[in-house]
Amino acid sequence: KLLEKQEQDYQEWLDETRAQVKVGLEQLERGEKVDGEIVIAQLKQKFQRLREENLGE
């Protein structure tokens, strides 16, 4: 059961990530971009939040 949940969570994450990459590529094609340091800071915050949520389960 736990393995099924992990697989489902991973698949949802993968689908969401692919969708976000698609959006990002479309934005780049339109000339829209964001500073890399800002993106890295946002990703670090997101991963920290996810780690904290997973430790709470």
Structural features, described:
There is one protein chain. With 57 residues, the chain is mostly helical. It has helices at residues 2-29, 36-55. It has one domain (2-55). 84% of the residues lie in helices and 0% in strands. The mean pLDDT is 92.
Number of strands: 0
Give the helices and strands as they follow along the chain.
HH
**Through-space gap between termini:** 15 Å
Largest sheet: none
Please tell me the total number of domains.
1
* Poorly predicted sequence stretches spanning 5 or more consecutive residues: none
Q: Helix fraction?
A: over 70%
Shape: flat
Number of helices: 2
Radius of gyration: 15 Å
Mean pLDDT across the residues is: 92
Beta-strand share of residues: under 5%
* Assembly state: single chain
How would you classify the helix and strand content by structural class?
Answer: mainly alpha
